[in-house]
Amino acid sequence: MEKRKSILVRTYLLYAFMCLLGFVIIARVVIIQYVQGNKWKHEEANLTTTFRTIEAMRGNIYASDGNLLATSLPFYDIAMDVNTDYLTSDIFNANVDSLSICFANLFGDKSANEYYKSLKSAREGGERYVLLHKSASYDDLQKVKHFPLYRLGKYKGGLIITQNNKRELPFRDLAERTVGYARETVKPVGIEGAYDEYLRGDSGRVLMEKIAGGVWVPINNDDEVQPQNGEDVISTINVNYQDVAESSLREQLLKHHADHGCVVLMEVKTGRILAIANLSRKDTGYNYVESYNFALGEAAEPGSTFKLSSMIVAMEDGYVNNSDSVNLENGSVAYFDRVIHDAEHDETGWVSVQRAFEMSSNVGISKVIYKYYANQPRKFVDGLCRLGLNAPLRLSLPGEGIPSMPNPSDNKTWSGVSLPSLAIGYGVTVTPLQTLTVYNAVANGGVMVKPQFVDALMKDGKVMKKFTPQVINPAICSSTTIRKLKKLLEGVVLRGTAKNLNNTVYQIAGKTGTAHIAVKGQYNKTNYQASFVGYFPADNPQYSCIVIVNSPSTDGYYGNVTAGPIFKEIADKVYASTITIDPAVNAGRIAKHNDPVVKSGDSKDTYNVLQNLNIPFISNVKSGWIATEIQDSTVHVQSYNLQKELAQGIMPDLHGMNAQDAVYLLENYHIHVMIKGNGAVTEQSLPAGTKFSRGQRVTLVLS
Predict the structure, then answer these.
(1) 3-state secondary structure of 626
(2) What is the 3-state secondary structure (H, E, C) of 345-372?
(3) pTM, whole model, 2 decimals?
């Protein structure tokens, strides 16, 4: 009896426990379903659907002539939902073979059978996402949209497209550091970094669903917030000048086995930077790359190019004239425990200040400054500060170097040798762009303008913002002082240390510099920085330029030998390509030839030359490629329809065309061109009317 009673008690307890457990479960279900229902539905939605960011198309960066310096190219991941509700088995099976063949023929990365097996397996396994190809081009995507199944439309065909944008530099490393980049967790560099807020645009949103395999796919387009593409930046860079600046700099760096160097070409009136090249040695094999913007960021002791600033202060204070005399003391002078030497000793006695500057005499310039400012060094330093040499230019691009100016009130750093050292460019650090800005101000009649890298912001062909020249200082000194300074700089090229740059076509004005480089506070007698900075044409300054070559180790280290030739090559290129820079053109004195030679080519360039040189011509052709014929000293222009033949795979007649246009045309159709000679095309290895193939080599003979 007791045993039966014990069993019943345990049974009732178990029954009560089960009832209680059931009640708890039912209560929990009710709470989840009705009390917390909205919360858990929201959590579920977040696990399976979410809004994803759609990257906006980044704006382009253009050169001043319209050439692309940086652009974003779209690439597409092509996938397929092989189990979309609209895709029946009959339709899928009837088209999967031909679809596989189309993919294999277009991309060639897998066989048709491999594509077929992948699609069939995914279909049978109930998968909703099959990645078929990554990083397809836009042209390939358009072809894919016409493949079997995909012709049915996005939903019926199951086509899934994901766009990714990749930044490309069409000119590769040309002005690479100035173009720069903008990346997360990395300091911004160049135009990309400085104008990132304009270039990046506004991202959009799309509702995505997580399907089997953890893959996110777009649900539909109805919930999308369309991205707003970024604005385009029109830079001041001239591609042709940039190219000659980089190639000339690289050639001299290789020749002298230098460590690094930089070049900046500036427009005098506006401060627009037309070219800026920065190259440094990558390895012992003398491979030079753009890894740092030295022109913008490297603040160093300038050496003799600083002597112009010293003369600006002394002349403006009324102490010095070009004709004043100074004793060069046999090429050396002592200031307390330091002896300052001249590099050259052609003249060692009394000379004019003009001659001392032309010879870049450390003795002469330091004595002039020491004579008038030894008892008032603060006045001299204040004069340099008025030129802005103690503070950054606050340029639009990031990474500007911080200059330093010695303080006469600081007894720890200022001594009796500080003033004469400062006079010749030691004990002070400035960036190349700061030095150029001072020289440019002299060329500009005393008006100091800020270096400018960007002309405008554009969107959809419309100018959103125009950047105008910014005047830093309307007058760094009087017009009288400017005339004296220009005479000093012209004399350097006519009779002084840069006379190797003198020529009969146009005059250059400027200053050489050869500075010892301090390493950890110690000057190495074998380590130099060679430089030349100036402007041209001297009688009507249009362009200023600075060249710096750091640590040349072979074949000379003086500024006129290493930096000067780079300046000259750039100046020659600019002068030759700028018609209006020639005084004879401006005055309308170009000689008229009985039979002007005019090559066939691009109409815009041809008309520009004809109009500027006042050569008579007759034409009804407004644009495109043209052929020319001379009749009675008049150029007769006819339409030259070359592209129609090229599009048909037929070689056109290139006789009479210039090399630039001929190469441009042929290489656009993937023909490799070899050029022999100069002038206009007189022979072509593949005769006109002959069929050509992609990658074929053609030789053009010019005379």
Answers:
(1) strand
(2) CCCCCEEEHHHHHHCCCHHHHHHHHHHH
(3) 0.74
